[in-house]
């Protein structure tokens, strides 16, 4: 296959890229390539040896490698061409791609459609600005996960974990099983920052109590980290004087959030949502540049890989349709975040086809009322920022959108008690 004949080019061969490439092929695109900078397809799933994957997509409880294997096998069977060890260096607004490949050298080509599936990266110590020295022994939780599960190294024996994201809680369990002592899981919020099931299975079941409303204020050590100072925080998340205490440790893991990887998106001129840090997309996952689509964690950070796959399949299918000459229906109705809603994806809809909305709240709240304009109203027992809301709007719901509507406001408010 010659690169100049490419219908759909997918950048990234993680769960998002594989799902998009397979769906593009199934939707009729003749030549689909997926470009991956590492030596294998599957993304970070290979280092996620714990279970909990595929519960919704496959209705099975799979490990990360098992989930990846199914998509890799299907990609090969459907004829998706994988360019491994290929680093995309530039995308232009007219969809020209420049890449460097170990096998083919410097590549330049222009596919009919592009799917962005670069995933996300972890926030590091530099993004937090924690005071102190710069010793060895400070890792992001994902790096520690790779060291243990892929490389076979335990990064330390006395561990403090800052942040209670899903990877952080999973690594608390993993390191405990490897014989390390998790001294503390420190969380600045008044609740954990990951899924409830991970809090129960990784912390509670292993007698690890998270230190809520606390943060690390100082790092100690010269050659190797020796201790950290933690302190309580107030309502403004500022350390409270007099509450400091020192915890001895030889390792500090950071599980403080993920950032969508969008340098290539910016090169292409794609408009970025300042809240999600990912591309602004319509219901077909088309970005602000016609012919460039996006799916998965490059758009917004997901809780579940199942949703990554579904969203990316939509992007791949839409890219195949665009490549065949079918233009996507323009999203003319903007979805605006109202009370206690942090963001909504997609940001615009056409109102002509069924759509699934993904959104996160700003603050944890119980007994709330979710109101999507005048088209849907739903009561929810509890909402929290770490648990994504997934709302499906059927054709019946969309019929309630009044003609001429350009904006729908979504609110999530505490339910009023009946008098």
Question: Could you explain how this protein is built, in words?
Answer:
By secondary structure, the protein is α/β, with parallel strands linked by helices. The protein has three domains: 3-121 and 259-323, FAD/NAD(P)-binding domain (3-Layer(bba) Sandwich); 124-256, FAD/NAD(P)-binding domain (3-Layer(bba) Sandwich), CATH 3.50.50; 333-414, no CATH class. Helices cover 21% and strands 32% of the residues. It is built from nine helices and 28 strands. The chain has helices spanning 15-26, 64-77, 125-128, 141-151, 166-177, 196-203, 263-267, 305-323, 395-398; strands at residues 8-11, 32-35, 51-53, 62-63, 81-83, 86-91, 97-101, 105-109, 113-116, 120-122, 138-140, 158-162, 181-187, 210-212, 214-220, 227-232, 245-248, 251-254, 258-260, 292-294, 333-337, 341-345, 348-349, 355-361, 365-372, 376-383, 389-393, 407-414. Helix 1 (15-26) runs parallel beside helix 8, helix 4 (141-151) packs across helix 5 and helix 5 packs parallel to helix 6 (196-203). The longest helix has 19 residues, at 305-323. The radius of gyration is 22 Å and the shape is globular.
């Amino acid at each position: 296959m010659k690169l100049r004949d490419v219908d759909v080019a997918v950048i990234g061969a993680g769960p998002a890229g594989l799902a998009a490439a397979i769906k593009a092929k199934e939707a009729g695109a003749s030549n689909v390539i997926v470009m991956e900078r590492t030596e294998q397809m599957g993304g970070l799933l290979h280092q996620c040896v714990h279970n909990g994957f595929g519960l919704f997509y496959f209705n099975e409880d799979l490990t990360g490698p098992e989930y990846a294997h199914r998509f890799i096998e299907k990609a090969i069977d459907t004829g998706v061409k994988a360019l491994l060890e290929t680093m995309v260096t530039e995308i232009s607004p007219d969809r020209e791609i420049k890449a460097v490949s170990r096998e083919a050298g410097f590549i330049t080509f222009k596919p009919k459609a592009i799917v962005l599936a670069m995933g996300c990266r972890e926030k590091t110590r530099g993004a937090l600005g924690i005071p102190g020295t710069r010793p060895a022994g400070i890792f992001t939780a994902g790096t520690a996960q790779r060291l243990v599960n892929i490389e076979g190294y335990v990064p330390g024996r006395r561990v403090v974990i800052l942040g209670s994201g899903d990877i952080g809680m999973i690594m608390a369990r993993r390191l405990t099983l490897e014989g390390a002592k998790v001294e503390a899981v420190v969380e600045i919020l008044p609740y954990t920052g990951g899924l409830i099931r991970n809090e129960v299975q990784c912390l509670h079941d292993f007698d690890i109590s998270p230190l809520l409303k606390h943060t690390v204020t100082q790092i100690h050590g010269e050659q190797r980290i020796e201790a950290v100072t933690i302190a309580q925080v107030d309502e403004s998340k500022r350390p409270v004087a007099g509450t400091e205490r020192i915890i001895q440790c030889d390792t500090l893991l950071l599980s403080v959030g993920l950032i969508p990887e969008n340098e290539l998106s910016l090169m292409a001129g794609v408009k970025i949502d300042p809240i999600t840090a990912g591309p602004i997309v319509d219901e077909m996952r088309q970005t602000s540049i016609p012919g460039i689509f996006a799916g998965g964690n490059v758009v917004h950070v997901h809780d579940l890989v199942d949703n990554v796959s579904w969203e990316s399949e939509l992007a791949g299918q839409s890219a195949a349709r665009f490549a065949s000459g079918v233009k996507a229906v323009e999203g003319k109705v903007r979805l605006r975040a109202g009370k206690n809603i942090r963001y909504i994806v997609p940001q615009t809809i056409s109102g002509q086809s069924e759509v699934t909305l993904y959104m996160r709240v700003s603050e944890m709240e119980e007994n709330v009322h979710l109101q999507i304009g005048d088209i849907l109203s739903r009561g929810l027992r509890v909402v929290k920022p770490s648990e994504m809301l997934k709302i499906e709007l059927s054709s019946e719901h969309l019929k309630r959108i009044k003609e001429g509507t350009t904006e729908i406001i979504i609110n999530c408010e505490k339910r009023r008690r009946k008098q």
